[in-house]
Amino acid sequence: xxxxxxxxxxxxxxxxxxxxxxxxxxxxxxxxxxxxxxxxxxxxxxxxxxxxxxxxxxxxxxxxxxxxxxxxxxxxxxxxxxxxxxxxxxxxxxxxxxxxxxxxxxxxxxxxxxxxxxxxxxxxxxxxxxxxxxxxxxxxxxxxxxxxxxxxxxxxxxxxxxxxxxxxxxxxxxxxxxxxxxxxxxxxxxxxxxxxxxxxxxxxxxxxxxxxxxxxxxxxxxxxxxxxxxxxxxxxxxxxxxxxxxxxxxxxxxxxxxxxxxxxxxxxxxxxxxxxxxxxx
Length: 281
Ligand code: AMP
Ligand code: FE
Ligand code: ZN
Hints:
The protein is of the alpha/beta class.
């Protein structure tokens, strides 16, 4: 229930992703591109040809007091969500940002051009760091996406430029205004070390209307060094927390084409049943 097409920073088209999802015998599938609904809209139009249940989706960038906090929106009325200027604003901000990242990388001597990046972005509307990572591989500056992030693109590295985003409260409101469901993706990537402090942040997100948590996620792709203790303690906390607060539980591979594998994250049967019931499938 969490994947990216080439309308944002994934490699594959919505159609290709649908074919993979069918092959992997997924029960529920969603394309959740960063800050754009174009790919998920196309997928929705052809979803009847497949045997899985398709949910429209999006992953919207947000930040609260310096804490990067993406919010997933599911089952949205795409036409409603597209209204207003919020999504266009973040897409435009992303386009301005890639010029700055490029400048930063050029200033430390890397020979990348705007064309190199544009080639990676293709006709997508949400350019981001993975496009730089792929261009850096193509130019033989690095061997892998992870290496590109470690050396050049992660926070604190020379290419890093902060994204202009909204507050999570605004993003949740946008999702709700389009009749969607707001879910917190990969919660253990939030930059709060202490699990009880993370729980307090969940309370804040809940007070803003958060509906669910993505508990089932493979953290090893983006954070290969995540401590086992954090995974164990964090997952236990989230299971308890979602039970206590009656939150929707989801899972996803966050498949981008070159990170992860579609269908690799296994979700317990009762969670799948909960989702089927929640979305009236
Ligand atoms: P951006 O949207 O430009 O800030 O880039 C964030 C995206 O980069 C995330 O959605 C992931 O797809 C990807 N990403 C972030 N960190 C890593 C990493 N260490 N390895 C691989 N991909 C990453
Ligand atoms: Fe991404
Ligand atoms: Zn994602």
